[in-house]
Model the fold of this input.
Amino acid sequence: MNTKAFHTLSYGIYVLTSIKNDTPYGCIINTAFQITSSPARIAVSCNRDNFTHGIISESGVFGISVLPESASSSLIGTFGYKSGRDIDKFAGVHWTIGMETDVPLLMEESISTIECRVIEVLDVGTHTIFVGEVVNAEIHDESNKEMTYRYYHNELKGVAPKNAPTYIEKEATMETTELWVCDLCGYEYESMTNAEFEQLPDDWVCPICGADKSMFTKKL
Done:
């Protein structure tokens, strides 16, 4: 079976959010889709290990912020590769409270936002599908293109985190170049020699999550 066929399916890059005790939580997902128009309903897939999963299960509400192609690497790194168990992901981020659900919604780095109340939950093993009835939706930036998973993968060279439904473990390859792998997000930097990577500027950071050079490990 050629699992690369899965990459031909269409996905977006979204920040899935919820709230508990007035504290905002969120994570990046790549699976959100409209399933009905009247009433409008949205389904999202969230890994059971994500902290946000438990928050949605308790609160019964979630929000979706659709990211643009111009979304910053720091935003993707924070919401995609760090945990709300450990840090406040919303520190320094421009966000607002949803008008109908009180869920946190991104403002500066989103094309649109959608608020939903959970009406059905489907356990699919490693992930849960939350079906939500849309209670509000807003457009914030029509001038930008929404970030697709293909753009994230091909242009930004991003990789799916292990909690993503699209994660595929890479097979070993016979590469002649050296690979340096970001311990935080899995981004791979190719260099012809060890010296090439070490000579990168001190302020160079991972283009996906913003980690510095010390967070990279040479792949043997």
